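User: Fold this; C-alpha cells only.

Assistant: Input:
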Amino acid sequence: ITSLFTSHLRGETPSQLPWSDDPNLSPETALIRSHLLLLTTTCNWWTIASQPAVDGLPSTHPVHGWGPARGFVFQKPFVEFFLPLSDWNHRLRPHLQSSSSSGVGRISYYAGHPDGAFESSSENPEAVHAVTWGSFLGKEIATATMVEEVSFRAWCEEAFGRWEEWARCCRSAEARAFLRKCKSEMVLVNIIGHVYREREGDWMWEFLKDAARGTHGKQNGERT
C-alpha cells in the first residue's frame, strides 16, 4: 500500500488512488511533495489531501492565486491521512494532546475511525476552521475553503467506504481480505496548522516529524 501511495506522490504508474479524483498532483501539492513523501515512506501514514501555507501572495499568483485581481490570498497548511490505530494511540494523539494542553493553539485535528467513532481537538462541534481565504480590493474577506466537523464526519464515511469499493475490485480473496483488514486498522486524521506566516510555514510539518519520532512536548517543531 505504501508503494502505491508513494507512486501517486511521485507521479509514477499507477498514479491514481481510490481517494484521488485526478491522477496528477496539483502544482501547489507538488511544492510539499517532500513532506508528504516523508510521512508516507518513513511512517506509513498515507496522505490523501493537503495544502501548503501561503502568506499574502498576489491573487494572480500562477500557483496559489484565485479570485479577482488586485487581491492577496492566504492559506493555513493542512494534511489528511490514514495511519495505523497503534500509531494514532501511541505516537500522534499524545503529541497532539501535548500541544493542545500548552494553550498555544497552533494546531487542530479531527480523527475518524471505521466504526464511526470520532475525536476532535475542539470542544465545540460547530467550530469552523477557515484554511483558505482572500482579501480583495473593495470586498469583504472571502473564504474559499473551510474544515469543520460535520463535513469531516461525512467524508470519513465515504473515505472508509472506498476501502470496501477497492476490495470489491480485486479478484483475489486474499487481496480483498487484506484491504478490509487495512480499513479496520486505520484512523483517518485531518491536521490543521494555524501557523502560516512565511517564516514559520513549515512548522506543522516539523511538528508531524516530531510525532513520527515520538518526541512529545516540542511546541516549536524543533529537532532533537
